[in-house]
Amino acid sequence: MAAPAADPRSFLDAVALTGGRAMGMADPEEVVAEHLERLNRHHPSLNAAVRLFREEAPVQARYLDAGPLAGVPISVKETIGIDGETVTAGSARMPRWHVAQDATVIQRLRDAGVVLLARGNLSEFGMVHEADNLVFGRTNNPLNPERSPGGSSGGDAALVASGSVVCGVGTDIGGSIRYPAHCCGVVGFKPASGAVPKAGTWPPARQSHFADSMLAIGPITRSVRDARLVYEVIAAADLSTRNGASAPRFVVPRDFTMAVREPVVGQALQRAEEGLAAAGLERNQPVVPDAGALFQDYLTVLIHDYEQPIRDGLTTADGQRLSIPREALRHLAGRPTVHKYLFRLIALMPLVRPSEAQFEAARSRIEAARQRIRALLGADGVLLLPTNGALAMPHGEAADYMARPGVRTLFTPTIYANVLNLPAISVPAWTDRDPETGLVPGVMLCSAPGGEEALFGAAEALEDVINPVVGQRGDAVR
C-alpha cells in the first residue's frame, strides 16, 4: 500500500480555528499560508484541485471581515459558479460557461468570511462515482493513492482529507458528497434538496425535472460540528431555534436491500448501533420503504430527466452533436471526446429509456415513499445505515460496478437518501480502519426534512463513538 498523504484527524477543524482566532490563537494569514503549503505539496500527487487561488487567498486573509467562518480556507466543486471563473463540468465538449456572478452559495460563504483556496475536481457532468475526466485528469485518494476518492465531489473530499482545505462544498444527486467523504475518511452532509439555493450552479435547475428534487448542495468537513456550521451558513438556517429532541430515536431498518463487502463496514455499523443505544437514543426496527425498488425508480427518473440534457450539453460550441458510433470509433482510436465512464452511460440510456407511463409510475411511488418515511421518522427520528457497502474502490471500479444492470446493492444506502430527499450525513469510523488498505468506512444517519437538529445531535453522539477526537481537531476550542 502506498503511503497516505495525510491523516485528516491531525488537523484543526473550522470551529477550533475560528474559536482560536477569537482568543488570539489563530492568525488567518498564517492559517491560509499553512494550508497553501499543504495544497502545493500534495497537489502533484493527488490532482484534487482544478484551480488554485495561490495569489488571491493571502489577500483575502489579510482583509477579512467578521463572520462565522472568518479565515477558514475552503474549496468548492468546479460546477459551482465563481465570478470570473469558467465552469467546464469536466467536459471536453461542453461549451465553457464563463461565470459573471457568484452562485448564491458562494455569496453566502464570502459573507461568512471564508478564504477560497481551490476548486475541486469531479467526474464528467458529475454523473459517476469517480473523480476523473478528460479536462483535468484523475484524482487520487489521500488515504491510499491506489484507490479512488469517490465522486463526483471527489476532489473536494481529497482536499479536506489531505489537510489542504478545512472544508469543501459539493453537490450530491446520488451520493456525490457522502460517498467521497466515506472514501476519504471525512464527514459529508447532504441537505434536503432546496435547503441550499442552487442558483448559479451547474446544471441549471429545471423545475420541470423531478430529478432536481434529489439534488442538493452541502459541505465536506473535518467534523460533524463543522458540517453543521457550514450548513447553517449556506442554508441561512439557525438550527438552535428548532425544537430538536434531546434524545432522538434511531431507526435500524429491517429487510433493507443492501450488500456489505468488507467486514469493517459491518463492524462499524454494529459499533454505531451499540454506541447510539449507550448514548441514550431509543432504537426502533421498523420496515421502511424498499430500497431495491426505489433504486430502480431512481434510475427511471434520472434517465427520463437527464438523458436529453446530457446529450444537449455535449453539443460543442460550433454545434456538433454527439454521435454514438463516431465517438465509439474515437474511443477505439484512443482519441475520445467524452470520458469512457460517461460515454458508457450515454450509450446504454436509449436501451433502458422509460416510457412516460413508467416515469409517472416511478414518480408516484417515490412521492408515496417520501410521505411514508417522513411520517415514520417524524421530527426526532434518524435512520442508521452504512454510507456504502464497500471501502473506497480501486480507480474505475465504482464506475464499472454502477454500469452493471440491476440493483447495485453496495450503493443502495447512499442513493436511498437522494431518492427520498432526506438530509443525510456520513461520519467516518476511524475506530474500524481497515489495517490492510488504510481505508475507513463511513456510517450514515438520515432524518426527515425539518429534523436536522435531531440529525446533527445524533451525528455528534455517533462521532464520539466511531471517530473520537485525536490529534488536533478539537484542541483549540471544544
Care to give the gist of this entry?
The protein has 478 residues and is α/β, with parallel strands linked by helices. It has one domain (8-290, 359-466): Amidase signature (AS) domain (Amidase signature (AS) enzymes), CATH 3.90.1300.10. The protein contains 15 helices and 15 strands.
List the helices and strands and how they pair.
Blueprint: H1 14-22, H2 28-46, E1 49-52, H3 56-62, E2 73-77, E3 86-87, E4 97-98, H4 104-111, E5 115-120, E6 132-133, E7 137-138, H5 154-161, E8 167-172, H6 178-184, E9 187-190, E10 216-221, H7 224-234, E11 249-251, H8 263-278, E12 283-284, H9 291-313, H10 324-332, H11 340-348, H12 356-377, E13 381-386, H13 397-402, H14 412-419, E14 424-428, E15 442-447, H15 452-466
Parallel strand pairs: 2-5, 2-8, 11-12, 11-13
Antiparallel strand pairs: 1-5, 3-4, 6-7, 8-10, 9-10, 9-14, 13-15, 14-15
Helix pairs in contact: 2-3, 5-6, 8-15, 9-12, 9-14
Describe this structure in words.
With 478 residues, the chain is α/β, with parallel strands linked by helices. It has a single domain (8-290, 359-466), classed as Amidase signature (AS) domain (Amidase signature (AS) enzymes), CATH 3.90.1300. The chain contains 15 helices and 15 strands. Strands 1-5-2-8-10-9-14-15-13-11-12 form an eleven-stranded mixed sheet, sandwiched between helices. The protein has a two-stranded antiparallel ribbon with strand order 3-4. The chain has a two-stranded antiparallel sheet with strand order 6-7. Strand 11 (249-251), helix 8 (263-278) and strand 12 form a beta-alpha-beta unit.
